DNA sequence: CGATTTGTTGACTGGTTTCAACAGTGGTGG
DNA sequence: CCACCACTGTTGAAACCAGTCAACAAATCG
């Protein structure tokens, strides 16, 4: 199944026809190599994206040259929905590994959203979800120490992986170097290294290879990072019945 | 003019009829006194809100008892739009001063959004705006020092005030104590006090009374906090013409 | 006017950064 | 296949920023 549809079906019922409508928006695919820029802050935008394969990330560069990473995108995630409201990108996005994106021009997407309020509602909900997750991240970054903050980061990475494969194994493949993680959390790479080893010492995780770790005690990791699983609490029933029905009624009304 | 409409008209053309449709959603008004809870994380929700008067804020309490403030709401801001997707509140909201809210039940709101894609698009855009602002806040909190971070906070407060009155004076009324600001930025109250005085020493701001300050050098303040005015860059023309038109066409099509 | 809350100041502590040197790893080309 | 090189992660020492604690001052409220 297409990763985008797989992700959506985690929290919303979507018919085969609707899935096709969504996928029809993505008229182009493109490969990116590790480190390649997808777009840069300020550039004029005419498409949005979904990740087919690989890791991508959004970031900003500060006046002093340091980098703040805003978000990491895995297979199935949507990139650049904000291009619907800003013609110019508000952040920069690059590839964190070799990968592949599907591109959807904005115009047909706008029409599709207008014509299909149910799908529109799903995208709306997806957007709210990222918003709530962002608030959790602010909390983690602003109020937790480096050790806890890193635990939060890893918990989130696991949870997001599980969205794509429920039976995701306890090995977590993380093709992100420690400078990268540091720039997510507002820490220094050196300190991330220390906290990483502290998690290993405490028996919470184990290193399998350079780019992958094994989670030994997932529950403890989540507790350290005070991680709330917002996906689980997303009220899909309500969303489907009330919001979806309201939209569907109205579109068949007129 | 109603503060909610005044805020929206800052970045979207809205007809008198549409404004009335929106305002009709708010069937109740209620007064809150300083410190009173509007709702608490986990509580079942059946309405969303807009601020008529006073200051409100969203926050979370961490396991160690510390508080992270997620957002501050002024007159015209919307509270609890996420209740459309979660039946239970994901954060807590309280009054930061005496104030007044207008309440809108969710059901009619859903129907209105489904039936009027133009208004729906406006709300969608409003949501994207808060999302982009959140990313800026993460950057400020995670990567800037306390001095810069405070400058960011004040810049944002000014900008948001100006959304309601373009001719807003250089005096900024801030009925928020320093512990409150500290909890926004993930700092200690003591340290906020020190950075505040540093801004005063440097001639950037001046204290008028306990609860209000005067901005002496607004541009410098923004520069210190690396503040980007996202409202200014919101592409209203594109939003109005393309997205609005697409929605309007489709609703008159069928 | 006294009581409570809020802001200020100083000394101390602790977490995090920075710098520098080094080790391990992977990749590349000879 | 090996030698070399670049990149990434590790470790220690020192500096720095921010937190904590405590005492006090100032403002606000009843």
Question: Which features would summarize this protein structure in a list?
Answer:
2 domains, Jelly Rolls, homodimer, four-stranded antiparallel β-sheet, 48% helix, alpha+beta, Arc Repressor Mutant, subunit A, 10 helices, globular
Q: Can you offer a commentary on this structure?
A:
The structure is a homodimer of 254-residue chains. The first copy, chain A, has 254 residues and is an alpha+beta fold. Chain A has two domains: 1-144, Jelly Rolls (Sandwich), CATH 2.60.120.10; 145-225, Winged helix-like DNA-binding domain superfamily/Winged helix DNA-binding domain (Arc Repressor Mutant, subunit A, Orthogonal Bundle), CATH 1.10.10.10. In chain A, 48% of the residues lie in helices and 21% in strands. The first copy, chain A, has ten helices and eleven strands. Chain A has helices spanning 3-8, 16-25, 106-115, 117-143, 146-164, 178-185, 189-201, 218-224, 230-233, 236-253; strands at residues 28-32, 37-39, 47-53, 56-61, 67-73, 78-79, 92-95, 99-105, 171-173, 205-209, 212-215. In chain A, the strands form three sheets. Chain A has a four-stranded antiparallel sheet with strand order 1-8-3-6. In chain A, strands 2-7-4-5 form a four-stranded antiparallel sheet. In chain A, helix 3 (106-115) packs across helix 4 (117-143), helix 5 (146-164) packs across helix 8 and helix 6 (178-185) crosses helix 7. Chain A is globular. The mean pLDDT of chain A is 89. Chains A and B meet through strand 5, helix 3, helix 4 and helix 10 of A and strand 5, helix 3, helix 4 and helix 10 of B.
């Amino acid at each position: 199944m297409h990763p985008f549809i797989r992700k959506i079906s985690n929290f919303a019922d979507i018919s085969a026809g609707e899935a096709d409508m969504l996928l029809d928006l993505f008229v182009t695919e493109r490969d990116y190599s590790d480190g390649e820029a997808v777009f840069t802050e300020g550039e004029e935008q005419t498409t949005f994206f979904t990740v087919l394969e690989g890791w991508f990330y959004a970031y900003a560069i500060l006046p002093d040259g340091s980098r703040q990473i805003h978000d990491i995108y895995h297979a199935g995630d949507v990139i650049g929905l904000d291009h619907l409201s800003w013609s110019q990108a508000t952040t920069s996005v690059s590839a964190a590994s070799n990968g592949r994106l599907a591109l959807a021009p904005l115009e047909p997407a706008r029409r599709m959203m207008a014509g299909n309020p149910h799908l529109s509602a799903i995208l709306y909900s997806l957007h709210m979800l990222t918003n709530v997750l962002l608030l959790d991240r602010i909390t983690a970054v602003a109020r937790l120490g480096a050790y806890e903050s890193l635990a939060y980061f890893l918990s989130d990475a696991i949870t997001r992986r599980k969205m794509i494969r429920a039976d995701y194994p306890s090995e977590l493949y993380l093709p992100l170097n420690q400078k990268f993680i540091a720039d997510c959390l507002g820490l220094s790479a050196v300190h991330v290294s220390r906290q990483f080893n502290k998690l290993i010492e405490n028996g919470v995780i184990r290193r399998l290879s350079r780019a992958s770790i094994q989670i030994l005690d997932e529950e403890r990791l989540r507790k350290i990072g005070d991680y709330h699983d917002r996906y689980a609490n997303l009220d899909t029933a309500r969303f489907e019945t009330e919001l979806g029905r309201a939209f569907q009624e109205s579109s068949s009304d007129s």
